[in-house]
Amino acid sequence: MSSLTTTEKLKQLLPQLFSSETIEGDSYLKFQLTSELSALIDLSHVQESLVVANREITAIPNLPEYVLGLMTSRSQVFLAIDLAHAMELPPEAINYREYQVIVVKTNIAEAEMNLPTERLNEPYLLGLVVRRILGVSRIGNRNFDEVEVDFPSAIISLVKGTIQQQETKSLLIDIQKLIDTKIRNN
């Protein structure tokens, strides 16, 4: 019979959890934007990730094609957009039974919105429909490269940088710029 405590067993099985070594860098949610392109979002903007049945998104007429409609989470209603289509790439969210959604939050400047005072501190939510959520990565800010010129201009304007990970290049999406250019102006 083993005399190891549960904590000692965990230390043996998962030494990285008990390491005093600090991991440098920020956390990012990695996802597949298209079949060939992956992207990252700063985890500080992510409220949650969901798998949502297509019937749970209510279509709204007279909005841009990349807007799939309204959805709810945690008693809050917000827009769901096809992120690839919003970035002027081929639409990814066509005829799926369910969508993988990243719910991002950002603050809105009070001068830009006529909101009641009690709502000014609430985050603005937006559902980003993506092809597939891949997980969380920790990356140092110095590891990002400049955006290459060979990407379409619509993508370049919404990307802060790129990073090569294994065999794929990932784009770091600027959530605030995405909301400013694609949501507020429409």
Characterization of the model:
This protein is mainly β and 186 residues long. It has a single domain, classed as OB fold (Dihydrolipoamide Acetyltransferase, E2P), CATH 2.40.50. Helix content is 13%, strand content 38%. The protein contains 4 helices and 10 strands; from the N terminus they run H-E-E-E-E-E-H-E-E-E-H-E-E-H. The strands form 2 sheets. The chain has a 5-stranded mixed beta sheet, with no helix packed on it. A 5-stranded mixed beta sheet has the order 3-6-7-5-4. It is globular, with a radius of gyration of 19 Å. The model has no long low-confidence stretch (mean pLDDT 80).
Question: What topology emerges from the helices and strands here?
Answer:
Elements: H1 6-13, E1 26-32, E2 38-42, E3 46-53, E4 67-73, E5 76-82, H2 83-86, E6 98-106, E7 124-130, E8 132-139, H3 153-156, E9 159-165, E10 168-173, H4 175-183
Parallel strand pairs: 2-10, 5-7
Antiparallel strand pairs: 1-2, 1-8, 3-6, 4-5, 6-7, 9-10
